[in-house]
Amino acid sequence: MPEPPASPIRPTDDAARALARSLIDGARHGALGVIDPGTGAPMVTRIAVARDETGGPLTLISSLSAHTAALKVNPACSLLVGEPGAKGDPLTYPRLTLQCRAAFVPRPGANHDALRARYLAQQPKAKLYIDFGDFALVRLSVVEAHLNGGFGQAYRLIPADLAAD
Predict the structure, then answer these.
(1) DSSP 8-class letter at 165
(2) pTM surpassing 0.85?
(3) Structural domains in the chain plus CATH codes
């Protein structure tokens, strides 16, 4: 009987943790994946990203967008961060997929005000629309993460691996 193929997932080490953290810290935007409640099909859109006080992803989205409606029905989502460089094969550049649960931040409130200030410090152009009635801050709480550091460098991470220092 042939041997099953070896798992491509490497043991998570400090270098993988540091690379994953740097991808989150350096992200100004990412690709958000949700499930369309009307069709059940996956849907992906680009969102602006900041970091909350724990270093986790925080975004600002409009209730007019299809992804907001999807998150209200099913808060399970994923966020892809990491940009390919200007040259070479884009698949050789690191990227991180975060499997998350979305939580809308109620306003008004002290927690909202503190997150609003953090968001604007990282995304200052959002000052133009952050207070519009249709916009809400959303925390993306990481459940699991998948790091692809380039060919042959796959890792599965847990939230503790991504904790900010």
Answers:
(1) -
(2) yes
(3) 9-83+94-154 (2.30.110.10)
